Amino acid sequence: MINFGIIGTNWITHSFIAGAHATGKWNLAAVYSRKTETAQAFASQYTGREIATYTYLSTLASDPNISTVYIASPNILHYEQAKLMLQSGKNVILEKPACSTVAELDDLFAVAKHKGVILLEAFRHIHEPNFQLLKSQLARLGPVYGASITYAQYSSRYEKVLQPDGAGVPNIFNLEMGGGALVDLGVYCIAAAIDLLGVPQDAQYWPVKVATGADGGGRLLLTYPTFVVHLCHSKIYNSDAPSEFYGERGTLVTPTITDIKRITFCDSKTKQRDEVPVQDLPACNLQDEAQAFAAIILTRDEPARARLEALSRNVLRVMETVRRENGLLFAGGK
Asked: Do 67 and 15 lie in a common domain?
């Protein structure tokens, strides 16, 4: 059983806890918040468990009962919070995006290695069985000719950006807090492309900037030796466009790149459409991720850990490069 603490008392944290508890391998044992009332109110929702509450990160870091910390705080805080936990000998699960820069991420991995602990970035979709099924189906395409991956979902928080006074801008549309659509939804598309097709040679980004200066959406082109991949992501409009993978022998189509409920292979020559049998989705969409992370931590699965480290580094390298090229700088010029 992994006793874990959490930093960040928002909806995604509740989702991770639900998924973690559903595996039977995790136990929520500590909650951190800057305010005592917030920490206690959050912990009170998980009855029947002994949960410590903390308002100082140093106290959480020194709790010997906690082996692992899940961090889902505002993006700009990830690096410093994760480094403190790693230095204290805790395994760390960082919600995506793990850090603002590759230099920060490299530093965290170096600390984790020095302390003999594990750092994992939470790309939930790559652990889903149907995503892995999609990956296994790529061989049916023959030579790959390209792909188009979409994740565009209107955010209710964009309404605050549209208010004339601009008051109360949410973190996700605030560059000072490490926000923007690229690092929120675009990261799913980039991680999928790299996990499925490998590391691109080049990347170009055309962002749609909103009133705060952050990117509300945009399009990327990832260039490979023999093909290109088009990525579309947004938090300021919706899209029902599927994600498609094109090859000499056919096309693979899925309505979404996360929570995949359907995969279709369209044969180039016969025009026949083959529905690939998929698994039912779990009640909590973070359960597969929690299961995978528990296995890595409990068995010290070094090959799996190293593979995810490489993925995190390659995804962040693309995001940091295209952000800087488009003047999307975070606090401190990151």
From this structure: yes
